[in-house]
Structures are given as C-alpha cells and as structure tokens.
Design a protein that fits this description.
The protein is α/β, with parallel strands linked by helices. The chain folds into 3 domains: 245 residues, Alpha-Beta Horseshoe (Leucine-rich repeat, LRR (right-handed beta-alpha superhelix)); 98 residues, 2-Layer Sandwich (Phosphorylase Kinase, domain 1); 205 residues, Transferase(Phosphotransferase), domain 1. Helices cover 24% and strands 18% of the residues. It has 10 helices and 29 strands. Helix 5 packs antiparallel against helix 7, helix 7 packs antiparallel against helix 9 and helix 9 runs antiparallel to helix 10. The two termini are 40 Å apart. This is Receptor kinase-like protein Xa21. One of its GO terms (molecular function) is protein serine/threonine kinase activity. It is found in: Membrane. Its main location: membrane.
C-alpha cells in the first residue's frame, strides 16, 4: 500500500509478474502518466481513486483477475489515450461516462463479462485508432454512430458477443479501417455494399452470424476468402467464397407475394396457433389427467410432448433415427410436428440406476441455464417410459472432428471449444448456489451446435454439493482414463475431480490421440507423453493438422500450444490440492487465446 506515497512518480511498470491481491490506493500519484500492471494475478475491483490521476495517459491492466464494474468517474481521466482492460472478469454495463474520453486512441475491453447494449455515445471517440470489445456479453444493435467521424479507426472488433440487428451502412465510411471482426454474434440482414469503399481493409470476419443476401464483390471483397463468411444462413456470391450463387432477381415473383410470405402469413399462422392452444388447454382442463399417463416435469412447463408425439417424431424409435447409445439408454434424432429438430434421450429402465440417472438429470438441469450447457426442452415420464427432449447439436461431439479423415479443427476452434467447456464447468462449480459436479467429463459428453459452440451434456451421474460440502463419496464409476485418481480408488468426487477430467480432455483435443491408443501402456500414459514433450519437442506430440513447420504463425502456435499443455498438466495433477480451480482455468485460457491472436497478427 505504501507505493501510493511516491507522489512524484511519473511511470509505474510492473507488468508480467506474479503480483496478487488488490490494486493499492494510487490517488496521491498526481504526476503519474503511465500505469502498466498487466499480466499479473491482481484481484478485486478497479479502485475509484485512479480517477484522480489527471495526468494519466496510459492505463494497462489487462490479463489479470479484476472483477466488478468500471468506475463511473473515468471521465475525469481527460489525458487518457491508451486504455487496456482486456482478459479480466469485469462485468456490468459500460458507464456512459467512459465514452466522454473523446481523445482516446486505443481501447481494449476484450475478454470480460460486460453486458448490455453498445451506447450511441461510442461515436464520441473521434480520434480512436483501435477498439477491441470482443468476447463479452454485449447485446442490442451495432451503433450507427460508428461512421465517418471516426476517420482514423484502423482496428475494430466486436467478435463473440450477442449483438444483433444489421451492419450499419455507416461502416462504409470508416475509410481508414484495416481490420474488422464481427464474427460469432447474431447479426442479420445484408452486408452493406457501401463497405466496398473500404480500400485499406485487409481482414474481415463476419462468420457465425445470420447474414443473408449477396456478398459485395468490389473493393476489398475481391481479396477475401471463404473463412470470412462461413457459417451464415443465406449468403450468396461468387464460387470461390464457397456460398451458393445468387439468384437472378428478375425471376422472382412480385414483391407483394414476398411481403405476404414474410410478414402477413406468419401473423395469421401465429393467431391460428394461439387459438388452437387455447382450445387444447380448455379441453385438457375439462378432461383432467385421467386419460394421460405421460406427466411432463416442471422443468419444461412451456412445452408438453407426449409419448405418442415422440414415437411419431422418431419413426417408432427406429434404428435409422438412432444417433447414440450409452450406459443408461439411447439417443434418437427427432423432428417434431412443428419441424423443430431435437434429440430424445430414452432411458433403459431395465438397467439398475437408470431411474436415479433420470431423476438426477432432471434435478441438476431443471433450473440451470448457461450458454455452454445442453438445454433440456421437455420430458416425458410414466411407469414404463422415461425420456428427455434435448437441444439437437448438428455438429456432434469433438470426437467426430478429432478422429475423422474429412473433418478437422483449427487451433482457434480448439481453443474456443476449450474455453466453452471451461466456462460451463466454471458456472457449475462457482456460479450456482448449490455447486454441481459433472463427474463424467470427456469428449463424448461435449456437443457442438451449428455455430461450433460447445455444450457440456450428459449429467447422468452428476452430484450436488450441499452447504459446506467440498466433496462426496459415491459408488457410481465414471469413465476410466478421465477419472481423477481419488475418484477411482475411493469413490471421492469433488470439483477438483472435474478439473482433472478437463485437463485430460485438453490433452486429447491438442494431440488428437485417444486414451486407448496402442502407444499408451501402463508405463506411458497420455499425460506422461505430454509431460515429456515439454522437455523434448512439442511438435512430435501435437495434432499435425494444426501445426506445420514453416507456416506463417508457427512460433505463435508453438507458444500457444505449450501454454495449453502446461495448463492441462496443472489441471491433471495427482493430488486435488495441486489442481487449479475453473475460475482461474477460464481466465488462463482466455489469456492464452488473446496472446496467440496478438502474436499471430504481429508476424
């Protein structure tokens, strides 16, 4: 705390150390111009007394464990030019005062938990050169105030949020723009043709959105590849972008029919559906429950699905609909009467423990909602039939991509899957009033949706920790190889056991080698194999599809992979006390990804 007494200090640089604890009071350092504390393990909130540093022009606190909201008094920092707060755990909405700092040149708020909409005031940053607000929880529309007034802006990233609406035409006025990333949002509409005027644009990524219409062909679009536009709903354009060709508008019917199909018909259909629901509800109340043996559980009261509906949707639970089988039952792909595709988990009630598995799934998942946890849509339960209706994940499990000859995952997709799974475990362990232990984490229990977002699934043997508990004992065994040592020998399950399983999962994703690979014996496991690689050569053990000697980003990838291996080994330590918790794991993975992206851009 005494460092705040150095009242004539001009610059304080303590970056990339192992500093812990809160940021001390620095309000008395009235002459301070530069403060760099990034790359440490600082915790707590950003202190309000930083707002008293009127001379501060560079504030770098990124890659720490800071939480809470941004101080509302930030507008007092009138000399601030560089603000870097990325890769922390900051949350809440942006204070409106932040955007009054109209002289800022660089703003990095990436990889945090900021939520809410981007305010129109973001357009006040008239001289900004770089703005990165990726990997947050922002919602709402892209502000139209990001326009030609920001004529010095060269780098702009809003990737991996929940932004929606259209790309504003005003983006075409950002004449200095060289880098634009809007990927992994819910942005819809067309790509504005005005963006053809961005003559300096070298990198564009609008993948994993809901864009439609023709991809512009002029200006920078002549040099862009298919990766810039993949995983959108209805884009069309030239063949080299791997999208369907655009239809000739002259062959389309009159605009009136389009309006009827797009606007009027859905309204009529919605009214008819509402009337039908009212009739069915009244009929149900009149008949009571005597004729219906199926009793949907309270976790999915918004939707009722009967045994008959499930039987029809799965073609009589036929083999052609079967997409997987496990210890407690089978999973079928089903198309409901309203054309929604779901997965139906039917429990084998003849196997001892299936009833408990069904009940535990319902208990665990009934009230849990998270972006990276598989969602239960409904359930159907009677004396001789129990099933859960789940979200359908069209891209299957990572196993499909790891061990397929035709499908592969690049390093960024692997990092994203790791971060998604870690975020799910962080929520289960630390985000709930009653912590949940998954107990059986492995690649087969991770599923990928249409946007390649990972969802943790299969809570058949999950355990709930009561108040004050840190572990439980169980007779139910998980999958050998992924199971923590204390789980296998004594049946002790804890959140640290999930961390161990996650470490093994990281190793499998990195190496593309199964635990049952013939090269692994009692003397040489996957963990020992990777541990030795850190002292010899990482290149000999890593999936060859993501690392090829001589490629442009080779060094950046080596550094990234080595960091993930070290993290995986920390997670899979033999003793539970030696393992990291999932809060730290998520922060470390995000830091690794951020560092890789920056290294890759500079090479």
């Amino acid at each position: 705390m005494e460092i705040g007494n150095l009242s004539r200090l001009i610059a304080l640089y303590l970056a990339n150390n192992d500093l812990v604890g809160p940021i001390p009071s620095l309000g008395r350092l009235q002459q301070l111009e530069g403060l760099s504390l990034y790359g440490n393990k600082l915790q707590g909130s950003i202190p309000n007394d930083l707002c008293e540093l009127k001379m501060l022009y560079n504030l770098s606190l990124h890659s720490n464990l800071l939480d809470g909201s941004l101080p509302a008094c930030f507008d007092n920092l009138t000399s601030l030019r560089y603000l870097s707060l990325g890769s922390n755990k900051l949350s809440s909405n942006f204070p409106s005062t932040l955007w009054r700092l109209s002289n800022m040149l660089q703003v990095d708020l990436s990889s945090n938990f900021f939520s809410g909409p981007l305010p129109l005031d973001v357009g006040n940053l008239k001289v900004v050169i770089s703005m990165d607000i990726s990997r947050n929880r922002l919602s709402g529309n892209l502000p139209s105030t990001i326009n030609g007034d920001l004529n010095g802006l060269t780098y702009l990233s809003f990737a991996e949020n929940a932004l929606q609406g259209h790309i504003p035409e005003s983006f075409g006025q950002l004449t200095s723009l060289e880098f634009l990333d809007l990927s992994r949002n819910n942005i819809s509409g067309v790509i504005p043709k005005s963006m053809e005027a961005l003559s300096h644009l070298k990198y564009l990524n609008v993948s994993f959105n809901r864009l439609e219409g023709q991809i512009p062909t002029g200006g920078p679009f002549r040099n862009l590849s298919a990766e810039s536009f993949e995983w959108n709903k209805a884009l069309c354009g030239v063949p080299q972008l791997q999208v369907p060709p655009c239809e000739d508008s002259s062959h389309h019917g009159p605009k009136v029919s389009v309006l009827v199909l797009k606007y009027i018909f859905p309204v009529i259909a919605a009214i008819l559906l509402a009337i039908l629901v009212i009739i069915l509800v009244r009929r149900h109340k009149w008949k009571g429950n005597k004729q219906n043996r199926e009793t949907p559980l309270p976790l999915a009261t918004w939707r009722r699905i009967s045994y008959h509906q499930l039987r029809v949707a799965t073609d009589g639970f036929s083999e052609s609909s079967l997409i997987g089988a496990g210890n407690f039952g089978s999973v079928y792909k089903a198309t409901l009467s309203d054309a929604i595709t779901v997965a139906v988990k039917v429990f084998n009630l003849h196997i001892d423990g299936a009833f408990r598995s069904f009940d535990s799934k319902c208990e665990v998942m009934r009230s849990i909602r998270h972006r990276n946890l598989l969602k239960i849509i409904s359930s159907c339960s009677n004396e001789d039939f129990k099933a859960l209706v789940l979200e359908f994940m069209p891209n299957g499990s990572p196993e499909k991509w790891l061990y397929s000859r035709t499908s592969t995952l690049n390093i960024l997709q692997k990092l994203d899957i790791m971060i998604d799974v870690a975020s799910a475990l962080e929520h289960l362990h630390h985000g709930l009033q009653t912590p949940v232990i998954h107990c059986d984490l492995k690649p087969a229990n991770v599923l990928l949706d249409e946007d390649m977002v990972a969802h943790v699934s299969d809570f058949g043997i999950a355990k709930l920790l009561g108040e004050g508990e840190t572990m439980k004992q169980t007779m139910t065994m998980a999958t050998i190889g992924y199971m923590a040592p204390e789980y296998g020998t004594s049946g002790i399950v804890s959140t640290e056991g999930d961390v161990y399983s996650f470490g093994i999962l990281l190793m499998e994703i990195l190496t593309r080698k199964k635990l049952t690979d013939e090269m692994f014996t009692s003397e040489m496991s996957l963990k020992h194999f990777l541990k030795e690689s850190l002292f010899h050569s990482v290149t000999k053990v890593i999936d060859a599809t993501i690392l090829q000697e001589g490629e442009v980003h080779y060094t950046a990838k080596i550094n990234c992979i080595s960091s993930v291996i070290e993290l995986a080994l920390d997670c899979s330590a033999e003793l539970p006390s030696g393992r990291k918790n999932m809060v730290d794991v998520v922060a470390e993975l995000k830091k690794i990804k951020t560092r890789y992206l920056k290294d890759a851009r500079t090479r």
